[in-house]
Amino acid sequence: MQPFTTLCAIAVPIDEPNVDTNQLCPTRFNKVPRGPAYARVLFHDRRFHLDGSAKEHLLNVEPFSQAKIIVADRNWGSGSSRESAVYALYEFGIRCVIAPSFGDIHVNNCYKNGLLPVILSVEQCAALRQSLRENPGSTVTVDLEAQAVHDSWGHTYNFEIQPVRKRCLLQGLDDIARTEQYQELHDRFERKDRELRPWIYRS
Amino acid sequence: MNGWDQSVQMTAKTLFQKLWDRHCVVEDNGEFLLHVDRAYFHEGSSHAFSKLEQQARRIARPKQVFGFTDHYVPTLDRTNGVAGIAQPEIRQMVIALQENSKRHGIDCFGMDDPRQGILHVVPPEQGITLPGLLITGADSHTATHGAFGCLAFGIGATDMMHVMATQAIWQRAQKTLRFVIDGELGFAVSAKDLILFLIHKIGVAGGTGHVIEYAGSTIRALSMEARMTVCNMSIEAGARAGMVAPDETTFNYLKGRAYAPQGVQWEQALNDWKTLYSEDSAHFDQDIAIDAREISPMVSWGTNPEQCCPVTSTIPSPEQEKDPIKAQEMRAALEYQGLTAGMALTDIAIDKVFIGSCTNSRIEDLRAAAMVAKRGQVKVPSWVVPGSKTVKKQAESEGLDQIFKAAGFQWREPGCSLCTAINGDQLSPGERCASTSNRNFKGRQGTGGRTHLLSPAMAAAAALTGHLTDVRQLIGAPV
Ligand code: SF4
């Protein structure tokens, strides 16, 4: 996993609440093997006509097509657990989504792929989106170590993040490496559990 | 509160806490490593396998991992088996799942297996899902299995790979929400109506960060099939998991099933399962009481599951919504759905009916739909897609397939089908479907498709009239 430290990049405002994972990656693209092909999948049905030609969409035009940060509205990434929604974001170039709230599984999938979900208040997100709409191409800086978002107009917004998630993102550590540190404890747990609940184990 | 009360509060555990405690291996800075008892995956889980292979890892406990063919399999003409799947991409996925399973020593319910079906229908029916388990699945509706008193939730591909490699998962503590539902459900009011009612009440984010327990006399009176329908849609209320404490209904359902414990182990398991309930004085972060008699047959009109109301009502007006954000969502939903506020729900004409999905494709669902279907002829193309081959066989032995066919329904092969529309079964742009599935998001059933969620009996009623219909009127309320 790529470490995430500080990111200064163009941010794109997406003004719609409840953008579900099906919008981020329409179901039929789920089966695409992970790779650059996913860049086109992001918001596919909003961005492209059935014949493949481009529709009018923020993400299809400069400067927003270069964005690495999305500033969104409530309940971003709700719905299906599909991790391909994160692949689509990632391959498009997005490394950070700022929103007032996130779908539960999606937020986990973000962390697990090195993408930072940042929670700011509804008002902060709305203000940020408005500034970005009025000044297309402005950059936003996300400093994970300092847990701060700086916009181009001198505002700083602090955010919370769980210490474990922060550590894993900063170091690019994946969960398996972390779990393996507890292998012995888990083995012991399982030995005891086999005695307590033998019917669970099929071998 | 005096000191004694407090100590009782501290020790009295919820069902969720009991399940959590028995799986917790270690805590690391607010994250808990939980031991996983069962993992379920499907054809779409190829990302997990390719990651596993990239890192040259083995599956830690292959006997506790199970594979299912459901999301992508065709639901018509399977006479030539896997080789006969028309779309080469899909054929390849089914083959890959079966081969991956075989290579890793995993029990797989392949497309030609006589027990094949949806990953939330087959494990309960085979006794793979048992009370007290921690279950992870590669589909968000894994919450279904909570009906047995399990902690069951959906995970993404990276987490699935983690579970496969370690038989454990990292989770943060969750809050608890309990619905205590009492009273008798009205005539023709089903578990689906109950859960739609609850989602409407608390909203699609109402359960976020929570695990839901469903309790009360109404829940106790529900069959396992109905409890699964309720738990299934916990995710639509924003919760990661839903659960019901196991009881005699649960034990009777499981006894003698193929993978369920037998003999001495059954007795041993039973003793353990009887300890799985929330203690009287246990604390819930939210506790909501519901009177079941208030619930009528429900139907969704919008593009998220909270946008639903009793079939007898009219579409609510965004102008009357106080929350400006919700009002905006309502306007967008009405536009997408091609509907206007104030319209009677029963005036909405439909183009298609889908009876199926892990929410409503079990034998009881099909019985309820057949009861209605035998009263007439379908007015629009209508499908019945059983949740598994076991359900299909049972239904055929009861003659339900004959009832459906005589009424003009298509009787198809088991799978997810039109619930998620990735196997080729899908709506055309603008097409309107009365569907027993769980999600009505834009495009869920096909690009541009429009979905109305409802119960199996209500779906069958809509099939016979060609528009949304109060099933109670169609079949005549009892005297
Ligand atoms: S029927 Fe629908 S919700 Fe259920 S497992 Fe299949 S795709 Fe998921």
Description:
The complex is a heterodimer of chains A (203) and B (479). Chain A is α/β, with parallel strands linked by helices and 203 residues long. Chain A folds into two domains: 6-172, Aconitase, domain 4, CATH 3.20.19; 174-203, no CATH class. Chain A has helices at residues 21-24, 38-41, 44-47, 84-92, 104-112, 122-134, 163-171, 175-180, 183-196; strands spanning 6-13, 69-71, 96-99, 116-119, 139-143, 148-150, 156-158. A seven-stranded mixed β-sheet of chain A has the order 4-3-2-1-5-6-7. Chain A starts with 5 loop residues before the first strand and ends in a 7-residue tail after the last helix. The model of chain A has no long low-confidence stretch (mean pLDDT 93). Chain B is of the alpha/beta class. Among the domains of chain B are: 14-171, Aconitase, domain 3 (2-Layer Sandwich); 302-470, Aconitase, domain 3, CATH 3.30.499. In chain B, the strands form five sheets. Chain B has a five-stranded parallel β-sheet. Chain B has a five-stranded parallel β-sheet with strand order 17-16-15-18-19, covered by helices on one side. Chain B has a four-stranded parallel β-sheet with strand order 11-10-9-12. In chain B, a hairpin with a 2-residue loop joins strand 1 and strand 2 (31-35). The radius of gyration of chain B is 22 Å and the shape is globular. The interface between A and B is large, with 55 and 68 residues. The complex binds iron/sulfur cluster (SF4). Iron/sulfur cluster binds next to loops of chain B.
Relevant terms:
heterodimer; A: 203 residues; alpha/beta; Aconitase, domain 4; 7-stranded mixed beta sheet; 7 strands; B: 479 residues; Aconitase, domain 3; 5-stranded parallel beta sheet; 17% strand; globular; disordered N terminus; binds iron/sulfur cluster
CATH-assigned homologous superfamily of the largest domain in chain A:
Aconitase, domain 4
What is the CATH topology of one domain in chain B? Aconitase, domain 3
Can you tell me the CATH architecture of one domain in chain B? 2-Layer Sandwich
Going by CATH, the architecture of the largest domain in chain A would be Alpha-Beta Barrel
Find the CATH superfamily of one domain in chain B. Aconitase, domain 3
Number of helices of chain A: 9
User: What is the alpha-carbon Rg of chain B in Å?
Assistant: 22 Å
Order of secondary-structure elements of chain A? EHHHEHEHEHEEEHHH
Oligomer: heterodimer
- What is the averaged pLDDT score of chain A? 93
Instruction: Give the tally of β-strands of chain B.
Output: 19
Strand content of chain B: 15-25%
Point out poorly predicted stretches of chain A. none
Strand order, sheet with most strands of chain B? 5-4-3-6-7
| CA-based shape of chain B | globular
Strand order of the largest sheet of chain A: 4-3-2-1-5-6-7
